[in-house]
Amino acid sequence: MIEFRNVSKVYNNGTEALHNINLNVEKGEFVFIVGSSGAGKSTFLKLVMCEERPNSGQIFVDGVDVSRIPKRKIPYIRRKMGIVFQDFRLIDHMTVYDNVAFAMRVVGASPRSIRKRVPYILSLVGLQHKAKHYPTELSGGERQRVGLARALVNNPSMIIADEPTGNIDPALSFEIVDLLSEINRRGTTVLMVTHEHSLVKHFHKRIIQIHSGEIVADTADMQENYAPPEQYATPEEAVENDDDYAEYDNQETYEPEEKGAYGFQEEPALDEGDIPEDMPLPSFQDEDLPVEEPAEIYPEEAIDPFQDDAETIAQEVLSEQPLPEEEPDSGEVKR
């Protein structure tokens, strides 16, 4: 579904956001992407969405090489994607129904198909009774569900969620990821950037950790020595038992002997200028999105909270499972 081949991205200010990334995400996978601020997560998503182009390497999305795709074809690639933002990106003067229907109107759907599809999608996210409400009349969790409905309404082959739980309370965060998991079970590929360790630990999905522009851990490569933690029965239990839960402070120094002191910090939301006012849905817009990266997102010098090797990092962040002791006869270590 998504393939990166030796992909590197360097911005005009000289910052190397990604370095020689090789990655495969299969159709139907659910992937958490984690890492500290400035690690390269946003650049990764922007390359997938064709907002940015790599300086070297190739990127394939659904079999299409998007690294050199003509600009006029980018909107058609984005129609395969549904995008969920941290700050919702809803249109306040439109009702819930119209916010979702707008995504269909953009791609030229008929009024009949809109009348049929939108109520179904709203019922899928549990908002059929809020169809005539405006975004300002909704809670944070409800607004994010509207954003999810909008992302789903055109039946995309993948959902890209950039910190979708960043502006809602912990219990509702689990509700949103539950919805994404249900969508994933129906065959849709899901990429989700998050800083919330309780979500990562509770939902047993593939986890990719990016640091300083490189992939330092990927549970898909650790099947023999990675065991996911026990799944909690309720969101409340997960939060209560997870010492790593909360917004992480990127200024905190990492101490190897103290598990959980990784210092994740909430990444800044995308600027309002990232999308035109008359087209708030970048997955469907016809105009090209700006490609300039704010310099503060990728500082030249960042605190390095990750001192161990990739395997140790993933074991400590996700769940530890001691390796078997060395066999005295063969001298080989089984992993």
From TrEMBL:
PROSITE patterns: ABC_TRANSPORTER_1, ABC_TRANSPORTER_2. Pfam families: ABC_tran. One of its GO terms (molecular function) is transmembrane transporter activity. One of its GO terms (biological process) is cell division. The keyword Phosphoprotein does not apply. Residues 268-277, 285-311, 323-335 have a biased composition (Acidic residues). It comes from the Bacteria. Residues 2-237 form the ABC transporter domain. InterPro entries: AAA+_ATPase, ABC_transporter-like_ATP-bd, ABC_transporter-like_CS, ABC_transpr_LolD-like, Cell_div_FtsE, P-loop_NTPase. It is found in: Cell membrane. One of its GO terms (cellular component) is plasma membrane. Residues 253-335 are annotated as: Disordered. It is a peripheral membrane protein. Its main location: membrane. The keyword ATP-binding applies. Keywords: ATP-binding, Cell cycle, Cell division, Cell membrane, Membrane, Nucleotide-binding. Homodimer. Forms a membrane-associated complex with FtsX. Belongs to the ABC transporter superfamily. Part of the ABC transporter FtsEX involved in cellular division. This is Cell division ATP-binding protein FtsE. It comes from Candidatus Acutalibacter pullicola. The gene is ftsE.
